[in-house]
Amino acid sequence: MTEPRLNHVQCLAARGLHRMAYWEWGDAANPRVLVCAHGLSRQGRDFDVLARAMSDTYRVVCPDVVGRGESDALADPTGYQVPAYVADMVTLLARLNASTLHWVGTSMGGLIGLGLASLKQSPVSRLVLNDVGPAVRFEAIQRIGTYLGAPLRWKTLDEAADYLWSISQGFGPHTREQWLALTRPMLRTDAEGFFKPHYDPHIAVPFKALTPEMLAGAEAMTWFAYDAVSCPTLLLRGADSDLLTRETAQAMTQRGPKAQLREFTGVGHAPMLVADEQVRAVREFLLS
Fold it and tell me: Rounded to 5 degrees, what angle do the CA atoms 135, 235, 223 make?
């Protein structure tokens, strides 16, 4: 199967209902489900390579978190928060009716998966956290905040790809073909035919309001959640990550689910799970 199916599910927020899109690979009747959740300003098609590699074994579901990709925008930007995203995913999981559920989450998608996996009677039985943990460096938040939600537009796909590459060096080496494949789903065209980012710029509102004090409070709560996770967990880390420190990664191998740690050289925040060794690491863990 070379292209995914696009579906939607209705979710409840403070100001009513919104539709969340999800991309689906593999046999729709397969009771083994793998959910892949993307990072802050990305969307579900980031996982095309991994999904193709896993669709022989799983029904692979890659949601566009609300405000991104083909999902609706929220009327209230303060709703762009991880606990609300977790609630949306509970609605999605009810729709999927999976008997086996595994989760791969990059950055924000990892925090969503962590939130789900920490709940009592959680259906998540294997968890992959991609370059994220309970402690997140404020400097990385500041770096992302410099471009998140900026009013950008480009004349051509190549122009857009060059700009996105300029802010995405941490993703590690990719061929031009790979990068264009990762770029196309990130764009939509405006009324004048220009390309612009495929997300609601208001996702930046709660993100840019973060302070070091707020981050410290969130860290304590997230460690509490991490310690409640009991399923086998794999932690992926870009060796040059500015978001997940080596110290935090090591601590995650010692407490809670005592994650297996796999680092990738020449990569920062975050591995895009396109390179063969990255796909292989995920596949071996999930099927072990």
Answer: 30
Tokens of 171: 């993703």
- Cα 102 to Cα 54: distance, rounded to the nearest angstrom: 11
Give the pLDDT of residue 79.
95
Backbone angles phi, psi at 196, to 5 degrees: -145, 165
Asked if residue 202 is part of any domain, the answer here is: no
In a domain, 183, yes or no: no
Contacts (Cβ under 8 Å, ≥6 apart) of 153:
190, 194, 195, 196
Tell whether 265 is covered by a domain.
yes
Q: 1 pLDDT exceeds 70? A: no
* CATH assignment of the domain containing 67: 3.40.50.1820
pLDDT digits (tens, 9 = 90+) for 55-83: 999 999 999 999 999 999 999 999 999 99
Q: How many Cβ atoms are within 10 Å of 195's Cβ, its own excluded?
A: 22
- Residue type for 154, please? W
Number of domains comprising the chain: 1
Range of the domain at 99: 5-137+212-287
Is the model's pLDDT at 98 over the cut of 90?
Answer: no
pLDDT at 15: 85
Instruction: Quickly count: other Cβ atoms within 10 Å of residue 176's Cβ.
Output: 10
Asked, for residue 11, whether it belongs to a domain, the answer is yes
Q: Grade residue 13 by pLDDT with cuts at 50, 70 and 90.
A: confident
CA atoms of 214 and 79, how far apart (whole Å)? 17
